[in-house]
Amino acid sequence: TTSVLVNIPGEAASVVTCLDGYQMAKAGRAGAALGMAAFGSFIAGTLSNVGLNVFSPVLVTAALKFGPPEYFALMTLGFVVTMFMIGGSMLKALLMIAFGLFVSTVGMDVVNGVERFTFGSVNMTGGFDLVAVIMGTFGVSEILMNMERSARGEVIRAKIRGLLPTLQDWRDSALPILRGSALGFGLGILPGGGPVTASFVSYAVERKLSRHPEKFGTGVIAGVAGPEAANNAAVAGSMIPMLSLGIPSNAVTALLLGALIIHGVQPGPMLMTQHPEIFWGVIASMYVGNVILLVLNLPLIGIWVQFLRIPYRILFPLILLLAVVGTYAANLNIFDVWVMIGFGVLGYLLTKLGYELGPFILALVLGPLFEQSLRQSLIMSSQNVLIFLTRPISAALLALSALLLILFVRGEWTKRRRVVALDAIQGGRR
Fold it and tell me: How many whole angstroms separate alpha carbon 272 and alpha carbon 196?
């Protein structure tokens, strides 16, 4: 809604929707843009939920063959893929993963129970509370970032009419929705993929396949339908590795994984047999939520527009108050509130410096399982690291990780050589 009416994305995955959605709104077609975004999301969500039903049990069966070495290798591959998919500097992504793994070691050693980096504080013996860290890293830091921005988008104030797309709109959007659903579901499964990557890839594909690519960015409905479908489909796709393997593919599923762990439920291959009501309940809730999304989204658009007109100076303190109350209520510990504020300031500074926070959260959530798998593997092999290479699955996963790193380094090296050569040519002409 904000992407179309205000040209301000409510989340990172909605950035692409601004490109054509806001232009459609300025042309008096805000209703068609909002309606197609809602219907496209509903169709993609339904199709991806069917895929979730089909592929999750299959992956669970394969995951039952996984031991500690395979889990360690799989998470290593996940970290490597995350560095590729996150965009920007690979070195910065690597540093954030390393920082997340370091923060996850605070507390008691997973094997021998020795305190690590607690500095004698009783509050830190159990490590940093996951809810406090995530609320600070994403919630508080986002509040600080938005308070810094003085400019506000212009809300489309014309009365919104015609939320039902025309027949021509459906003809123009049918294939983009189907392609976006497939792309989003596939990219959602990959570590570091998720809705953001899916929406950008979908927009690029639709522009490439269009007979008139020059019209994209001027109010093309396919530029709204495809990315919105990919955005929603990626959500179901990202649930497959989280539910089946216990490995989140993005920061959102990492938060959900943390919530399940807090309640004593360990996602993974045994979730379907030990807690089938939770496994299938989550999938069923996604079907229900998809329908509710469509039912509520369209009739209540007028109310959402009014919320957008609340001044930021009023809205942000309310959000911060809710974050503080929620963090404190989790454990009734004021220390968690200070942790939230500290990581909020840290997240703000890191964002200003160009670091992505997603890899940090992924590493923080996966850190304990990553370390546990490594330590268990070494215990199984009497401290012999060759155990990762003598087991076929773990060896294949590590080989794939190494291959991806080599390809990336080679690509970066080639790119830099071209830049140096181009600079030399331009310097010679001067």
Answer: 29
